[in-house]
Write a structure and sequence with these properties.
By secondary structure, this protein is an all-alpha fold. The protein contains 2 helices and no strands.
């Protein structure tokens, strides 16, 4: 009687950790962005200021963070 060999797949702990880190980072980024947008709109409404101008300021902050991220990737910084 011939037995078929079962294939065992091993989980790479480093790969699993990287996947979890990516998911956590995406979740943190989306929650930070949505709370920034809602705070910006809420502040503009309470202050009777134009909501569009408050959103433009928020866009400027995102642009600054994107430039900073790009420059750190360009020089190869890996964190603290």
């Amino acid at each position: 009687m011939k037995r078929e060999r079962e294939e065992i797949t091993l989980i790479n702990p480093k790969e699993e950790e990287e996947t979890a880190t990516r998911k956590l980072r995406a979740s943190a980024e989306s929650s930070a962005s949505s709370s920034s947008i809602s705070t910006s709109v809420f502040g503009a409404v309470l202050g009777k200021a134009p909501v569009l101008k408050s959103q433009l300021g928020l866009f400027g902050g995102w642009l600054a963070m994107a430039i900073t991220y790009g420059l750190t990737k360009l020089i190869g910084s890996s964190g603290l």
